[in-house]
């Protein structure tokens, strides 16, 4: 038997000898180390060593007797038996050969890196980090261990942690025999990430399962804080296909609070301590774009390697550390992702909240489900005794010991943590909706109050007062056919993009730029160009938003590009038709700084909106920012699937002016494959469709405005709302004329207005006239698709 193996000797085929964690690191060093992927130097104390300890001390029989009672008994009893098991293992005498082998391996590290070299001592069970079982947080690890005596003690504690109560319970719940799992221990040189940053990265979006992004979390200091959920980390997404094509851009980012960090006690003392991060550091991202992209590169290479070995896609969960001394990036753990990748293929489950109540708290959504139940505030482990099945657990942060409780909970809500912490991983594994990093949930919510926890509304998870109604829809996508008519979706919320992209659709028929500006950017374009003309208080708010960018205009372009880019990446290479901003003046005025630039109009619906703004001196500089952002998405992000659509274009001459301004801003129709569409939503667009067809590549019918202007009804007026009906014969005739005119000119024609979503008969009417595409709200896509399939089957 070999008690110690250098990580350089280990391969993934050695899981039975060194556990999943050590085996993966050895595999990476061998397969990718020569190409620049850094893995810390170290060694594995093998599973043979663990078995030798049990045999040498003769304690296996005692352990079996203590574990003969199922762990599903009382928590107090399990804790007592688990403690007795750990004491038996920890206090067991070692064979002399094991003591000598560990000392010799550490001495070799000292010879390479200095006397008393600090190491991380990490558990690596033989059933850990498998594709169908994570064992996340079940066993113990120790950081910044120095000296051979401290190392021996840490290895003993790691071995004993195989019998933590949470680990015993996890094995029983997942069908693992206690003695079929052995524990290896990994000993690795510490990376000085206490002077820099560390985090977790997934080669898949952890909430939607979208496979084409790398999702990265990052925080200052050692990785323990981010894994345990003690900090709200920074978050980044990188689009894999674009990165591999040479477009090195961060797709999306979110600044986390990062209030604490774990660091070495000091330069000469072993162990770690937690310190408060100064406010100035919290207010900036802990890693720059170059580091984000380097992490993404590493994760993609790791995923490719393990997928090739497995003979199929193998999404990976990777822990990384940035060395604050030499600047190198180290991979300190790599394991298969065990939740999203295990979902049933081809089954789409969608949750829909039917109404909203008072918002009580909000944080980061984990999963996409909805649950209701009474609140159970858990401040200490003792509070778990009062827990009842179906309650919503609300805590500052969970402990891995709470596995049984979380399995029976309706939902989980925490004050701290990010979407890659242990609480989030366990919640996904148990399929329990969770909202993490709320900040104030334990004080905002009250024990016993009924709440609804919603993770179905994008990246932000929300806790509403009361028991709200919701629907769950399951669709077998394998049974869904593909109509000849392109079925597309309307989407303006980037946080829903990855989830929506999994729907069976042909792309995005309408991405509303104004929605992205309102929710993601928040600043009026002209206020970004001319902050000096804005009220000083508002100017300060704009400066705060732009603090990570060179100027307010740089901020506007970057934030808008990331919003558009997220949607484009989610659907790539399917087309994404982005409609230029179509605010009305009263809506523009609500943006930060907007009041300084917007006129007061008696009827904004028919006033200074759409194409009329883009070449006008009062807005042209703002429009140029929109163009810069879209050009950045297409050229720098590499998302050339973005098509541009001009809204509310009244006259042909107006169209020519807009196209000229766009060309000056680098968005020339036909250049780099750019297609430019126009909304067909004004009667003049239908009447003059042959002339408009000479200038544009396609049309998208806006049924809302076309109905309004055909019937002379203000669609915002409650008094005459009963007269607003897209099914009116006159409106239907306009729709038919638009389709016929576009096809007569060989132009693409679709519809993105609300009518097909609300009225299936309108969708049927258009299909019978040969419309190319129908774009719908996501919640109506599946039902309408089935209806269209029936219609197409009935066509001659």
Write the layout of secondary structure elements.
Elements: E1 4-6, H1 15-32, E2 42-45, H2 47-57, H3 60-66, H4 75-90, H5 96-113, E3 119-125, E4 141-145, H6 148-160, H7 165-173, E5 183-189, E6 197-202, E7 213-220, H8 224-228, E8 234-239, H9 240-244, E9 252-254, E10 260-266, E11 269-276, H10 279-282, H11 289-310, E12 316-322, E13 329-336, E14 347-353, E15 359-366, E16 370-378, E17 392-395, H12 403-408, E18 411-414, H13 422-430, E19 434-436, H14 441-444, E20 450-454, E21 460-465, E22 470-476, E23 486-490, H15 497-501, E24 508-512, H16 513-521, H17 525-529, H18 536-545, H19 552-571, E25 576-579, H20 585-588, H21 611-614, H22 620-636, E26 642-646, H23 652-664, E27 676-680, H24 683-687, H25 689-693, E28 698-701, H26 703-711, H27 729-744, E29 748-751, H28 755-758, H29 760-768, E30 773-776, H30 778-794
Parallel strand pairs: 16-17, 17-18, 18-19, 23-24, 23-30, 24-25, 25-26, 26-27, 27-28, 28-29, 29-30
Antiparallel strand pairs: 1-2, 2-5, 3-4, 3-5, 6-7, 6-12, 7-8, 8-9, 10-11, 12-13, 14-22, 15-19, 15-21, 16-20, 20-21
Entry summary:
The chain is α/β, with parallel strands linked by helices.
How does this structure look, described?
The chain has 796 residues and is of the alpha/beta class. The protein has 30 helices and 30 strands. The strands form 6 sheets. The protein has an 8-stranded parallel barrel, surrounded by 5 helices. The chain has a 7-stranded mixed β-barrel with strand order 15-19-18-17-16-20-21. Strands 9-8-7-6-12-13 form a 6-stranded antiparallel β-sheet. Helix 15 links the parallel strand 23 (486-490) and strand 24. It is elongated, with a radius of gyration of 29 Å. The termini are far apart.
